[in-house]
Amino acid sequence: MNKEQIIRRISELKKEKNAVILAHNYARAEVQDIADFVGDSFALSRAAVDLDADIIVFAGVRFMAESASILSPQKKILLPDLDAGCPMADMVTVKELEKAKKKYPGAAVVCYVNSSAEVKAKSDVCCTSANAGEVIASIPENEILFIPDKNLGSYIASKTDKKIHLWDGYCPIHQLITEADVSAAKEKHPNAVFLAHPECRPEVLKLADGIFSTSGIIKYAAASDKKEFIIGTEREMIHKLQKDSPEKSFYPVSEYAYCANMKMATLPSILRALETETAVIAVPENVRVKAKKSLDRMLAAVPK
Ligand code: 13P
Ligand code: SF4
């Protein structure tokens, strides 16, 4: 089948099976173009609840599909490639978390959504990069164990008086972005605004004109009267930025900022997922119920 035939068949199957495709802002451009909804992790988890569908094909990574399944267990959640993981999510295990909870018995565990369902189930509340500040302000505890992203954690720590214990986790893709990359990009594009994702290193965030989630970066750039932007996150973001604002120029801060896991959803793998209704992402009920509490507390902390 050629590309057009694959797209046509995907669209037929979506109608036949009452299915929708949700894509993260880092998904392949051609996948974003056929998705019913494209967004950041937070918007995707809300969309998974709100969209009326029997099947959701998740063009993203496993923790995102798991979150959808935790929140909407009556929907069939499909991940086109089971290998689409997130290395940062693997940087905290239940065993390690249990040990840390003993070390900080008074701390509330705030868990970045980039984590496994089991870890969410052992946490007090989840957050994403779009709402970490609001979530932390919404809980009564003044001492927090923030897992697993040390960069997002230290950024949030700089915005609150609460005591935050950091975990030694990070995104290997954002960690590749250096101060030198930012300086080189600024030299090349002296009039450009530098927008960064909070998963970047603190020394990179210091150089940013704005720090937002992926959808936050897209919204900010679309609303800004500036014409040029250096984008401090995964490079596929340029697709939606450019689509929304064709008259503006966007430059990835580093060509190396490429998340291969996010590219595992391809047009052929999405077609296969819809045809075979595999691979289903489901979370054991005892874990799901506890993890849902953490996700529900996050959703409740951020008004619609
Ligand atoms: P967002 O929630 O900002 O989309 O980020 C998710 C992610 O994995 C970034 O690396
Ligand atoms: Fe995980 Fe980083 Fe890929 Fe986001 S960009 S999914 S944090 S590896």
Q: If you had to describe this structure to a student in words, what would you say it looks like?
A:
There is one protein chain. By secondary structure, this protein is an alpha/beta fold. It has 15 helices and twelve strands. The chain has helices at 3-17, 29-34, 41-50, 62-71, 94-103, 117-121, 132-138, 150-157, 172-175, 179-188, 202-205, 214-223, 237-244, 267-276, 285-301; strands spanning 19-24, 37-39, 55-59, 76-78, 108-112, 125-127, 143-147, 163-166, 193-196, 210-211, 228-232, 249-252. The strands form three sheets. It has a four-stranded parallel β-sheet with strand order 2-1-3-4, with helices on both faces. A four-stranded parallel β-sheet has the order 6-5-7-8. A four-stranded parallel β-sheet has the order 10-9-11-12, sandwiched between helices. Strand 11, helix 13 and strand 12 form a beta-alpha-beta unit. Helix 1 runs parallel beside helix 14 and helix 4 (62-71) crosses helix 15. The longest helix has 17 residues, at 285-301. The chain is globular and about 55 Å long. The relative contact order is 0.17.
Task: Supply the key terms.
alpha/beta, 44% helix, binds iron/sulfur cluster, binds 1,3-dihydroxyacetonephosphate, 15 helices, four-stranded parallel β-sheet, 12 strands, 304 residues
